[in-house]
Write a structure and sequence with these properties.
Length: 373
C-alpha cells in the first residue's frame, strides 16, 4: 500500500483567489460610488426640506377650520335661561400667516384651501397689529350681538358716552397713536357719544394741527394727541368708530377659541335661544356665519367657501350666511353652494330678523317680544 500525499485544500493553483470582481479590478469601488451619490442625494433632500420650511412667502392661507356649539357657551347669571335641543354652530376657518414653501404648495394642490396675498389680509400692518385687531373684532362682535339680540327681544339698550375704536386705517394719523378697542371719551375737552360729534370737532381744526383725545385703554384713562388730515374735503384722523352701550342683561359668551368679527350673527341667535322658552332651531343642526351690527344688520365675511366645507363636515342641516352685495361675495357664495353639498340648505340673510324667519319656517319656535326696559 503506497502512501499518497493528499492534494491541498483550496482552489486550483491556476485560479486566482479571491476571484477578481468585474470592472477595473478595484474591489468595492463601484459600490463606493453609489454610496457617494446616495449621500449627496440625502444631503440635497435635507437642504430642500429645511429651505422649504424656513423660507417664508408673502401669502396667507385660509383652510376649513371647525365649529363652536354656542348653545353650551352662553350664560346669563341672574336671568332665567332655557335648555335647547338643536345646535347653533359658529364656524371658523384656519388661517396661517406668512406661510412657508410647503404651506404654499399645499394650498396650490388642495382646492379647499385659498392662497391670499398677505397685504390683502393685514392691510400692510404687522402680524402683531393684525392679531390685536382680530381680538378687538371679537370683543366688538360680542357687544353688537348682545345689543342686537336684546333689542330683538324688546329690551331698551341705551348708549353711554364715548366711542369705541373698531378699526384704524393704514397710512392715516390715528394708526400711530390709537389702538383697536381704545375708547374715545372726549375730544378737546368735549364729551363725545356719536361719531358726528367728533367729526364736527375735527372740522374746526386746520390740517396738520392735532386734536386732544381723552381715551380709555385697558382700564386706564389718558390723553393723546392725533394729527388731523383731510380726505375728500373732510377732516379726518383715520379711525372707524362705534357707539358704546349699557347692556341691561349680564350675558357671558365663551368664544375664547376664536377671534374676528364673523361670529356676530351666530352669537345673537344663541343669546335669543338661551333667553326664550321655545326651541329656536326646531331641534336642527344650524351652522351660522356673518357679522352683526347693533341694529341687527348682517355683514359679509371672508372664508365663506372654507366655512361651507366645515358646515358639511359638521352635518349641518341649515347654513345661514350673509346676503351678498358685491360680485366678490357672489363668487364666494356660488363656490360655497358647491362645497356645502346637497344635504345642507344654504340660506343668505341680510338681517337678524330674516335669520329668525328662516329658522321659524324650518320648524323653530317663534321669538316673543319680552318688552323689557
Amino acid at each position: 500500500m503506497s502512501n499518497q500525499t493528499a492534494p491541498p485544500l483550496g482552489p486550483p493553483s491556476d485560479l486566482s483567489w479571491p476571484p477578481e470582481l468585474p470592472g477595473d479590478g478595484s474591489p468595492g469601488r463601484k459600490s463606493f460610488g453609489w454610496a457617494k451619490w446616495l449621500t449627496a442625494l440625502s444631503v440635497l433632500v435635507i437642504v430642500i426640506a429645511v429651505a422649504g420650511t424656513v423660507i417664508r412667502l408673502p401669502y396667507d392661507t385660509l383652510a376649513p377650520g371647525g365649529t363652536l356649539n354656542l348653545e353650551t357657551r352662553v350664560s346669563a347669571p341672574g336671568t332665567k335661561t332655557y335648555p335647547t335641543r338643536g345646535s347653533l354652530m359658529l364656524l371658523f376657518v384656519s388661517e396661517r400667516a406668512h406661510v412657508n414653501v410647503w404651506g404654499w404648495l399645499q394650498a396650490k394642490l388642495d382646492p379647499d384651501i385659498d392662497l391670499i396675498k398677505q397685504v390683502q389680509v393685514n392691510g400692510g400692518n404687522s402680524q402683531q397689529e393684525t392679531d390685536q385687531q382680530d381680538v378687538c373684532d371679537m370683543a366688538q362682535a360680542q357687544s353688537n350681538a348682545k345689543v342686537a339680540a336684546l333689542s330683538a327681544l324688546g329690551y331698551h339698550v341705551p348708549t353711554v358716552p364715548g366711542l369705541a375704536v373698531i378699526d384704524l386705517f393704514a397710512g392715516l394719523p390715528a394708526v400711530k397713536v390709537l389702538r383697536p378697542c381704545d375708547h374715545i371719551l372726549a375730544a378737546d375737552g368735549h364729551d363725545v357719544t356719536r361719531s358726528t360729534e367728533l367729526s364736527k370737532i375735527l372740522k374746526s381744526h386746520p390740517v396738520g394741527s392735532t386734536v386732544a383725545l381723552r381715551i380709555e385703554r385697558a382700564g386706564q384713562t389718558m390723553t393723546v394727541r392725533v394729527p388731523v388730515t383731510s380726505s375728500q374735503n373732510t377732516h379726518i384722523i383715520g379711525v372707524e368708530l362705534s357707539p358704546r352701550f349699557k347692556i341691561p342683561v349680564n350675558i357671558n359668551l365663551d368664544t375664547s377659541a376664536v377671534s374676528g368679527p364673523s361670529g356676530g350673527l351666530a352669537m345673537s341667535l344663541a343669546i335669543i335661544d338661551a333667553l326664550t322658552p321655545g326651541d329656536l332651531t326646531g331641534g336642527k343642526q344650524v351652522a351660522v356665519t356673518g357679522t352683526i351690527d347693533p341694529d341687527g344688520n348682517v355683514g359679509e365675511i371672508g372664508g365663506l367657501p372654507q366655512k361651507a366645507v366645515v358646515a358639511r363636515r359638521a352635518h349641518a342641516q341649515i347654513f345661514l350666511v350673509p346676503a351678498c352685495t358685491d360680485d366678490g361675495c357672489r363668487q364666494d357664495l356660488a363656490t360655497a353652494r358647491k362645497r356645502v353639498g346637497k344635504n345642507v340648505e344654504l340660506r343668505p340673510v341680510a338681517t337678524l330678523a330674516q335669520a329668525l324667519q328662516v329658522l321659524r319656517d324650518a320648524g323653530g319656535a317663534p321669538v316673543p317680544a319680552l318688552t323689557k326696559t
